Amino acid sequence: MTRDPAPAEPAPAPPAGADIDTDIDTGADADTDALDRIVGQWRRERPDLDPSPMHVIGRISRLHWALEERLCRVFGRYDMGRGEFDVLATLRRAGAPFELNAGELSGSTMVTSGAVTKRVDRLERAGLVTRRAAEGDARGRLIRLTDQGRELIDDLVGEHLRNESDLLAGLSPGEQAALTDLLRKLGRTLPD
Fold first, then answer.
1. pTM for the complete prediction?
2. What would the pLDDT profile of 45-71 be if each residue is shown by its tens digit?
3. How far apart are CA 54 and CA 65, in angstroms?
4. Which domain covers residue 66, as residue numbers?
């Protein structure tokens, strides 16, 4: 069941000048892909450099853009972008009464308060959230899911998780767990 909550944000495009091919399996044989060829070309052209980090970073970058496009398809069916989804999902995850102040919402969505305000404005116009003054803080605002917003995010998150499961179907549960651990470790060890 599709809804008409707010104008959708378009899926982000790869950075200008990025050589991103979201058709990840373009290799001549099943064990190689475009990145293997790119690394091989750099080894041939610049044997003084070690291009091996491209095997990981290049794949993460390519997968990011390919996955983002596929995830945004689901959001688009609800006339919603990732940003609006993120706000609604954050409020829903907070539990009853499905309400957070702007600072909590900004911290949970990991975007600036200005970006949260813009998203909340769109969602409020669509009747999916309400805003009210916080008790004891006239400048503070509380954002709450409406019944319509809760119904929509409950439908959407189910479809979103089914889509994510489909996207990971090529990996066994054990491979998914190992990848989760490796990505978590990489996230924790990235230099500042």
1. 0.76
2. 999 999 999 999 999 999 999 999 999
3. 16
4. 25-77
